[in-house]
Amino acid sequence: MPSFDYAESPDPIREDLAFAHRRAWHRIAGAGTWLTGAQRVAVAEETRLARECELCRERKQALSPFAVEGEHDHAGVLSAPMVDQIHRITTDAARLSQKWFESLLADGLSVEEYVEALGVAVCTISVDGFHRAMGLPLEPLPQPIAGEPTRDRPDDLVEGEAWVPLRAPKAIASELGLPGGQAPYVVRALSLVPAEVHAWSDLSEFQYLSRKDMMRFEKVRAIDRSQIELVAGRVSALNQCFY
To answer: Cβ distance 34 to 112 under 8 Å?
Structure first.
């Protein structure tokens, strides 16, 4: 398992962050709900390859991504629709569309696979983004762990609120211990595959704020809450985050 040894970092890094990153890599390596460990590691690899993909670069510069045809620079492990999903989410998320999403399903990608791959990509991008921001080399991807996906599908899903089915907000709030008994869409987005919600929540707790600290507005980190939100808002704007 990768060490995430930050001893050589030019700036001190909290040990709880290293533990959170190790857990994230361990989760990516193992079989998930709908994808094997090998497929999950391949999703992580594609998030990295997307940054150097010539097709993605040309599409990003085009007026419309659909104006440029071609094949992604990819590792040859995942299906074509999943490769396109990961590359588009990684490089041009602001221009995703429901029509594009439905074309992936028409090409054979299941909605459950889409959500799980999205969850793995989000965690990979988050950990890699931390390394780039700190001026550190990227951690090697983990070796896949043998095993079969559980294929557990929640039975409390709500259709029609998003492109993908979502779990009811009270169910997610109860599982995560969110105050007020409600979960916002940014939390529910991955809820078709609950394990990915918990993976995202665990990483967010250490890279951003814990659920308890989200309700506190005094100083809870080395910088105060207003500074945390200023950084978070600026990063969201630069990444064109929409949710």
So the answer is: yes
Strand partners, 167: 157
Residue with tokens 């993909």: 53
pLDDT digit string, tens, across residues 23-49: 999 999 999 999 999 999 999 999 999
Torsion of CA 82, 86, 92, 97, to 10 degrees: 40
Contact 178, 187 (CB under 8 A): yes
- Element holding 157 (H helix, E strand): strand 157-158
Q: Enter the tokens of residue 81.
A: 């629709």
Backbone angles phi, psi at 86, to 5 degrees: -65, -40
CA distances from 169 to 111, 122, 129, 178, 230 (A): 19, 21, 29, 10, 27
**pTM of the prediction?**
0.91
Encoding tokens for residue 202?
Answer: 């665990």
